[in-house]
Amino acid sequence: MKKLSVFLVLLLSFGLLAACGSKETTSNSTEKKELTIGATSGPYSDMVNKAIKPILEKKGYKVKVVEFSDYIQPNIALANGDLDANLFQHKIYMETFAKQHHLDLSEVIVVPTAPMGIYSNKFKSLDEIKEGSQIAIPNDPTNAARAFLILQDAGLIKLDPAANPLTVSEKDVKENVKKLQFKPIEAGQLPRAVQSVDLAAVPGNYALAAKMNLLDALVLEKMPDKYRNRVVVNTKDLNKPFVKDIKEAVESKEFEKVIDEQFKGFGKPEWMLKRKH
Q1: Is the Cβ–Cβ distance between 233 and 94 less than 8 Å?
Q2: DSSP letter string over 52-84?
Q3: Cα angle, residue 102 at apex, residues 98 and 108 outer, rounded to 5°
Q4: What is the pLDDT of residues 204-218, one digit of tens each?
Q5: Rounded Cα–Cα distance for residues 267 and 269 (Å)
Q6: Cβ-count burial 71-85 (b if 16+ within 10 Å, e if not)
Q7: CA atoms of 217 and 255, how far apart (whole Å)
Q8: In angstroms, rounded to a whole number, what is the distance separating the alpha carbons of residues 41 and 88?
Q9: Which is more confident, 200 or 70?
Q10: CA dist., res. 109 & res. 86, Å (int)
Q11: How does pLDDT run across 241-275, given as a tens digit for each residue?
């Protein structure tokens, strides 16, 4: 009887070990190798297709890129599980959207981003800007603040040092060197405004959508990383192998080579500028 008990214990142990081994094999065999990545139409879907997708495919992934024409659906689709990752938004937008819609989103890595620029068909340099010139700026608070910061960096205005950089507005302008007249309009209309006003502060994505050359700007913004776009995933997926592979793809020299060749004028994030070549 004692021998029978020992035999049964050993048999049960082997069974458990076999089950564990089977479970581990199943886990490895079901590792995610098909990815769906969402991005807004234009430069960021191009970035996924040209600079990220080929690297992931070399790692054995099958990648589908879904393009969006708005800034709401990419996060909804991500939260619903229709996407594995998306690329279109900066940190402030991601955090605000997640809070408002009760989503749990996390960034993976910041990518090179098209900066806002001051454009003009009337002036070829900042020095040529005449007193009283009219400048079209975005009418939404976040992008308007960026426009005022560019103008300050360019020496055209001085802002109240006590003002919050994320929310500065015309009321915070303490010195207006050229007596610029500010004309707030909807951000998507700013590329057209270049034709009708003296100057226009155009966000990079709208400039590119209108086939404008970023390098034609009189000045491009010194964009903080919080305003740069990033790859975003559901927080529950943050430590999964496919997320690690996306991050490695963006960190690769191959990715940066494509950026340098095909995304001229895009401002690089701090991590990319700091690394040694």
Answers
A1: no
A2: IHHHHHHTT-EEEEEEESSSSHHHHHHHHTS-S
A3: 40
A4: 989 998 999 999 999
A5: 7
A6: eebbbbbbbeeebbb
A7: 25
A8: 9
A9: 200
A10: 11
A11: 999 999 999 999 999 999 999 999 999 999 999 98
